[in-house]
Amino acid sequence: MDVERVVGYIPAVRMKTGLFGSKAYTLVFTDRRLLFAELTDRVLTRLVTDARAAAKASGGGFMGQWGAQLEAAASAGRQYLAMTPEAILAETPGNLAVTPAEVRRLEIRRESREGSGGLDTDCLKIRIELAGRKLDLETEAELPPRDEALAMARRAFGPAVR
Fold first, then answer.
1. pLDDT tens digits for 85-133?
2. What is the enclosing helix (H) or strand (E) of 12?
3. What is the pLDDT of residues 6-52, one digit of tens each?
4. Is 60 exceeded by the pLDDT of residue 68?
5. Quick one: which of 30, 36, 34, 1 has its CA closest to 17?
6. DSSP symbols for 41-78
7. Which of 31, 51, 53, 64 gives a 20 to 30 Å CA spacing to 131?
8. What residues contact residue 123 under an 8 Å CB cut-off, 6+ apart?
9. What count of other Cβ atoms lies within 10 Å of the Cβ of residue 62?
10. Helices and strands of the chain, counted as H and E runs
């Protein structure tokens, strides 16, 4: 039997949960579906703790551990490349999956917005249309680049991706 594989991820995606609220997720693409891995405080703390411990074990002092901590927080999502889809879904109760049969349309577009100091920054806007509802998501930066994100999405969702 063919094993489901993780093919990539989009880190630090925000989904509105109300007028002022939002939740942070890492969108993990497999070759069969899209997983929403909630970026909870517990997950972030574990990533930072593991990175500091690894830096310390390899002889890193305070600055090395601090740098590893910053890198872990900035690259939240990389750990999913080494996990099975089932382990990703079991990581937190807020994690969920969306299959191609549920998705009517999936759009990923680049949008520029004014950042700090008047500099424009590019971000990704993602809209997933399901039966009866739409999910609107946004990143802080264009990571990965839009074309790469589209390629990941097309592997599982084919013609629904725009």
1. 999 999 999 899 999 999 999 999 999 877 666 778 899 999 999 988 9
2. strand 6-16
3. 999 998 899 988 778 889 899 999 999 999 999 876 766 776 676 66
4. no
5. 36
6. HHHHHHHHHHHHHHHHHTT--HHHHHHHHHHHHHTTTG
7. 31
8. 110, 111, 112, 113, 138, 139, 140, 141, 142
9. 10
10. 4, 7
